[in-house]
Amino acid sequence: MASNLVMSSHCSFFLILFFLLVSASFTATSAQWVWPKPRTLSWPSSLATILSPHFTISSPYHQHLSPAVNRYRLQILTEFHRPLVPPRVNLSSSSPALQTLTIAVKDLSAPLQHSVDESYTLVIPTASSTANLTAETVWGAMRGLETFSQLVWGSKPLLVPVGLHVWDSPLFEHRGILLDTSRNYYPVDDILRTIKAMSANKLNVFHWHITDSHSFPLMLPSEPDLAAKGSYGNEMLYSPADVATVVRFGLEHGVRVLPEIDSPAHTGSWAEAYPDIVTCANMFWWPAESEWADRLASEPGTGQLNPLNPNTYQVLKNVIGDAVALFPEPFFHAGGDEIIPGCWKADPAIQSFLSENGTLSQLLEKFVNSTFPYILSLNRTVVYWEDILLDADVKVDPSFLPPEHTILQTWNNGPNNTKLIVSSGYRAIVSSSEFYYLDCGHGGFVGNDSQYDPPPTSGGSGNGGSWCAPFKTWQTIYNYDIAYGLTPEETKLVLGGEVALWSEQADPTVLDVRIWPRASAMAETLWSGNRDESGKKRYAEAMDRLNEWRHRMVNRGIRAEPLQPLWCIKNPGMCNTVHPST
């Protein structure tokens, strides 16, 4: 052993055991464990050294980076990660124990917002006791800390690769998860755990779909009755202090918190406090003997804000103003999806408006023209769902939504709608339900549904009641190219993507398994892509890495669902298929 490594006889025993383990013909290397895979990683020596039990991280003070540094140091020294497949490495005979990771940040003042530089460079030399992490911003430094933490493994001693160089930066700047907390409530601790897991996967946007027709859990100082009367109860509320906790936690993990107050549709819960501004509230969603086109909502839970009622805008401006004050995020998601004609037509004032040659699209334009400028005046960029421009029945003229102030989030028709959005000059966030909806494939939630009782000889049960079936596997998510079919100029308008967990059939008991590790699949494709250096899809080699990453996430307290039997992981490649699909 190297003379400059001082070890007790107890430590020497573990090193001997380690050498016996790594002498077996395993193919994994510790650098391959990093998830998402870095853009460039060079480790030609396959050498490792001991991480000192007195390891420290030296960094400049920053109100959000410093807590992250403390958190990562504790995690690195106490995680004791044991890979499912031990790595093939050699312990360096000339490398000292790694004592320090030194962090250098060029711009300590850059705020966490869209387009902030998240790049970093990590160097762990062979002949030095100090590793170096350099980044343009503190947010890049956080990404580099996560990478470093994943490179450490073992227990006594801890080991870390040496002779390693990483340069890393995301392909897409917007990498997020949408969580719906209206249909079912999630305590703050569950939200924090989700943000923590997002940071570990280098995801950077928590899209908080806070309100919907089913409940209004957000307490707002200017409109306290909305939550008092529209929530599921006093124990299922988010106070301003709760929001501050989530936002601060997000900042300390490099995760933006993007609020969505969906309107004018999906607002049935507002009627508990303001019945006069909500049309078709508390009515049965699909009246008997009526066609689907005449429904009042696309699922149980009716109600849409009335654009003709002046009180609508006073309440809404109070809501938006309070939300903007609570969330420092420069983007504000205003919803705009699934406006159902039947709901507005149920209102007498709207019936009169339509009888005088008014249209539903004009109603929506009135609504947008009364709210969009107000959101802009609060120094926010407005995000809408794609429906506001692409819906077949109710949509606004593009002149109402200048592209420089508007972002559209797509969820229908896969790459076709993304193409429609960016070819019109709008920036896009991709959440195609065919690939990125995590709730799909669990059946429908409406009761008394005859489609579950087909004749036994019918040959199948269809989609099981799930409108967006089948279940979106990690492979489906991993292989989706969100810029498919776009020109290079159009691709520049794709900000990134979000997987979405709508909560009709999800709550805290299944939160982790619904999201992880499928969201990890998107995390890698948006960070470093889903293809190798030759341009070939790399899902085959990603399987083993994702298994290892899921194992590590579970040990970090994230109850991610398994991808394969443990036997497959212990026998790499034996559970693959070598036959092309037909």
From TrEMBL:
Keywords: Glycoprotein, Glycosidase, Hydrolase, Signal. The active site is at residue 338. CDD domains: GH20_HexA_HexB-like. Residues 34-151 form the Beta-hexosaminidase eukaryotic type N-terminal domain. It catalyses: Hydrolysis of terminal non-reducing N-acetyl-D-hexosamine residues in N-acetyl-beta-D-hexosaminides. InterPro entries: Beta_hexosaminidase_sua/sub, GH, Glyco_hydro_20_cat, Hex-like_dom2, HEX_eukaryotic_N. The keyword Glycoprotein applies. GO terms for molecular function: beta-N-acetylhexosaminidase activity. Its EC number is 3.2.1.52. One of its GO terms (cellular component) is membrane. Pfam families: Glyco_hydro_20, Glycohydro_20b2. Residues 1-31 form the signal peptide. One of its GO terms (biological process) is glycosaminoglycan metabolic process. Residues 172-529 form the Glycoside hydrolase family 20 catalytic domain. The keyword Hydrolase applies. Coiled coil: none annotated. Belongs to the glycosyl hydrolase 20 family. PANTHER family: BETA-HEXOSAMINIDASE, BETA-N-ACETYLHEXOSAMINIDASE. This is Beta-hexosaminidase. It comes from Salix dunnii.
